[in-house]
Amino acid sequence: MICNLQRYATHDGPGIRTVVFLKGCSLSCRWCQNPESRSRSLDLLYDERLCISGCQRCTKNNDCFQRKDSTGAVLIVREQLTESLMRQAADACPSGAISLCGESLQAEQIMQQVLRDKAFYQRSGGGMTISGGEPFMHRKMVQHLLQIARDEGVHSAVESCLHVPWNYIEPVVDLLDLWLIDLKHVDAEKFLQWTDGQLSLIQQNIRRLGEHGANVVFRVPIIPDFNDDEPTLAAIIQQASEHYRQFGGSGEIHFLPYHTYGMHKYHLLGLDYNCARQPLERPELLAFAEQQAKDCGLTAILRG
Ligand code: SF4
């Protein structure tokens, strides 16, 4: 199931790209700005600002939707929602207050769309990037997409946290041109407090990718109260530097300061938001990270 297909993307690998966002993630980072990509199944988003006064259409024959006061918000019993009840409500809603996230497509259907922009990829040095969620939650789909991309001569990249068993990854090591890998922290306990994941699994996979000669680029999200301190950033940069020293590669490290663009989506999904409500604005910390990377022989790239 995919969340979205984004054409003409320029921040998810080189050149102009189409990004395929697959649904489902094994980490659930607290700062995630794409909460609609966490679950592998269909999600329902409700925006009460678009709800029409006096309307009751979604509540008809659908007990999961209740509107006691005709001008108030619709109450959604999310625990009892099934896919068909979600579709029923979204179809009934005339204003777009209810929308769905998730579409089941075959790899061939996805690639049909991706290949529409092949000429742009060739001219710009771009291609396809598979993102998520965590793409390797759909390992067969990833393999299939990459095989078609390879057959068509389209450059491929993946954005992954690598929090999956190695046997999910290994079959595509030779099919992928670029691995955009998150380096979020170096402390396993802190990592576990802020995500649902085991850092050791990720580090093992990074190492294995190095041993297989994979073309890796590290990306560091900088998150308030999680890793926005100099010692932690220095340790992350050091790890990236050691990887490149040992296994070779681009030597690039990308810094992604925390933003809150996706915060409102938590509300639309009926979820609590448990991270900072302001974007990270610490120019001195970013300057430190850039300098530290330079000192370690890395090329630092700051992503807005
Ligand atoms: S159908 Fe849409 S506009 Fe009407 S009450 Fe339900 S959510 Fe609001």
From TrEMBL:
Keywords: 4Fe-4S, Iron, Iron-sulfur, Metal-binding, Oxidoreductase, S-adenosyl-L-methionine
Oxidoreductase recorded as keyword: yes
EC number: 1.97.1.4
Domain Radical SAM core: 11-295
Transmembrane annotation, as ranges: none
Keyword Iron: yes
UniProt protein name: Glycyl-radical enzyme activating protein family
Gene3D superfamilies cross-referenced by the UniProt entry: Aldolase class I (3.20.20.70)
Top EC group: oxidoreductase
Family (UniProt): Belongs to the organic radical-activating enzymes family.
The organism of origin for this protein: Tolumonas auensis (strain DSM 9187 / NBRC 110442 / TA 4)
GO molecular function, one term: [formate-C-acetyltransferase]-activating enzyme activity
NCBIfam families listed in its UniProt record: PFLE_PFLC (TIGR02494)
The organism's place on the tree of life at top rank: Bacteria
Known cofactor(s): [4Fe-4S] cluster
